[in-house]
Amino acid sequence: MSAPRTVEIAKSLPPRLLRFFEKYPPPALFPDLASRPSNLLSTSQATAATTTIISTTPPTDTNAQMKETSAPEVLPVPSNAPRNSNIPPEAHNLPYPNPFLPHKNFATGRWQGPAYGLRKQADLVKLASEHGVVDLLPWTIKKPGEKERLRTERGLQVKGTGEGQKVKGKLWERTLKGRLEMRRQAMLNMPALIQEWKQKGHGRGWKKWPSGKAK
């Protein structure tokens, strides 16, 4: 996007979006973060290190002017967010913790919730969609098309086979096929088992008690 076009769009943005982009610069400013070494930066440090595209004078000035500045090189925050298979890797490639995802505070060793709840995320996405800048927001499940993408991925999953899944299911699911086959063979051998039971005195000295455990 050209510089004049960026300034024109910035002039039309509501104050709520301007405040958000001042605190969390658009990820489009840092397209090559994935190829750079990681460095620990907090949200405040990343905001101080980056210069936002737009800066405004106080709203009381009717002739407020907007100026464009350059964004210096910023190193990304290490991957400190929980690795969920439903979250794309680019959601973490930011010079600051994604405000829409939980992250770990290395000073305290504790996890912190997202800076914006789901309702506020949805409000920001709706507002950004109205002004055509939704692509400048960090990744969030509330972005258009994300829920449809998850439905498509889940529709390709085949339970018990691992197809489309990173975990093939619980233990009872993984051993279900073998147990069903063992039961089928036991039913086929049932007449011979009954005959042997009768010949050995109806259980006297019986050693081969059947087991229902899968082998």
TrEMBL record:
One of its GO terms (cellular component) is mitochondrial large ribosomal subunit. It comes from the Eukaryota. Residues 15-199 form the Large ribosomal subunit protein mL59 domain. GO terms for molecular function: structural constituent of ribosome. PANTHER family: 54S RIBOSOMAL PROTEIN L25, MITOCHONDRIAL (PTHR28041), LARGE RIBOSOMAL SUBUNIT PROTEIN ML59 (PTHR28041:SF1). This is Large ribosomal subunit protein mL59 domain-containing protein.
